[in-house]
Design goal:
CarboxyPept-like_regulatory; alpha+beta; 10-stranded antiparallel β-sheet; CarboxypepD_reg-like domain-containing protein; globular; Immunoglobulin-like
């Protein structure tokens, strides 16, 4: 059965690859002409998703002509028909409403109570069951040097109900490149593929600021969001006198639908410095970002990013470790396809999974085009591994 599943994936991948409409796009700021990172690009007819890289580049591969929507939390949305993007490299400009200022909104309810209600409504409205076909990739650093990389095309079959979510994971293709010591393994990562979607869909990462005690540790505010009149932004920032590993939280939400559209959190440089002085902290970086989308009655995760940086002793040496993970939903469907239980991936990470490559999916089917610098990093890791092997 496993061979049948693998053969089917290969045939479907090759067929889809042969039918694709390929469009190269660079997304830039209208005023500065600078590239814009992390712009979500969605093909509205096919429910395909893409994300611009650090150079503002995106390779859009469509199964058929479609209207493309460009969205970013700091810019006005843009809608473009794919047929009009017929140049070798197409430039799309987004406009930022930088002339408008944020205003604090005074609310009768405490902002934390508003956040609790948002989380509850968002959990109820998130689309389940569903299949998220995702591209995920992970870069690993040791002592500020890249040592390992892996990526893959993965199907998350989201099952259960909004109150009790479960996922089955099916890996279509994947590759692992580089060399790891025992100081980096699937037990020290800041995420686990087998519960990451459950955590995102239940907004578990917000638990830190939903407790009663959090009101004494954080300053909560609701502000207007100049880039979109229908959105508001809720901020929870640690008070200067608060102790511990507390992140800055930003929650962007639709004020009419009462659902969360974006969640981000990070340890500020100021907080990291405090931790190092007070606790000799093991962390030197911690951040994540989730972007959600709505299309009609569908509400789902569009992309995510997590970065975890920590110090760990290895053979009496203190090492600085950093792991960066990106996930992009390349296709969304409310239907669950049939599969054999033996094909379900149960490990925490693709880190130790043997490479299975049928096509150059990272170039043509990933939704997240590697930058020139990232290609050089990957090529150097390949050369390093080949020299040792």
């Amino acid at each position: 059965m496993k061979k049948i599943f693998t053969s089917l994936v290969l045939l479907l991948t090759i067929f889809a690859f042969s039918q694709e409409i390929k469009i190269r796009i660079v997304v830039k700021d209208f005023e500065t002409d600078l590239p814009i990172d992390e712009v979500t690009v969605t093909a509205l007819k096919t429910h395909q998703g893409f994300l611009t890289n650090a150079d503002g580049e995106v390779l859009v591969n469509l199964t058929k002509a479609s209207t493309l929507e460009f969205t970013h939390s700091s810019y006005n949305s843009m809608v473009v028909k794919s047929e009009t993007l017929n140049k070798k490299i197409n430039v799309v400009y987004l406009d930022a409403k930088t002339q408008q200022l944020e205003e604090v909104i005074l609310t009768k309810d405490h902002p934390q109570d508003i956040l609790k209600a948002l989380v509850e409504t968002s959990r109820d409205k998130i689309t389940i069951p569903a299949n998220l076909k995702m591209y995920l990739r992970e870069f690993y650093k040791r002592n500020d040097k890249f040592v390992f990389f892996n990526d893959g095309l993965v199907n998350f079959q989201i099952l259960g109900s909004n109150s009790k979510i479960s996922t089955d994971i099916l890996v279509e293709q994947n590759r692992t490149i580089g060399l790891l010591d025992e100081d980096i393994d699937d037990g020290v990562l800041g995420y686990n593929l087998n519960n990451i979607i459950e955590n995102y869909y239940s907004f578990k990462y917000l638990d830190e600021i939903l407790t009663r005690a959090a009101r004494k540790e954080y300053d909560f505010q609701v502000k207007t969001y100049p880039q979109n009149e229908e959105y508001l932004i809720l901020r929870a920032l640690p008070l200067d006198e608060s102790k511990g590993m507390l992140s800055d939280f930003y929650v962007l939400y639709d004020s009419k639908k009462k659902i969360i559209m974006e969640v981000s959190a990070f340890l500020s440089a100021k907080r990291i410095k405090i931790l190092e002085e007070e606790e000799n902290s093991k962390m030197h970086k911690l951040e994540y970002k989730n972007v959600f989308r709505t299309e009609g009655n569908m509400y789902y995760l569009a992309n995510s990013k997590e970065v975890i940086g920590f110090y760990k002793k290895y053979k009496k040496e203190k090492r600085k470790i950093e792991v960066k993970n990106h996930m992009v939903t390349t296709n969304f469907d409310k239907k669950i396809f049939q599969y054999d239980k033996h094909n379900i991936f149960t490990d925490k990470s693709l880190i130790n999974k043997k490479s299975t490559v049928f096509t150059e999916y990272w170039e043509f089917d990933s939704g997240l085009k590697p930058t020139a610098d990232e290609k050089k990093i990957i090529e150097s890791l390949v050369a390093l591994k080949d020299s040792i092997d």
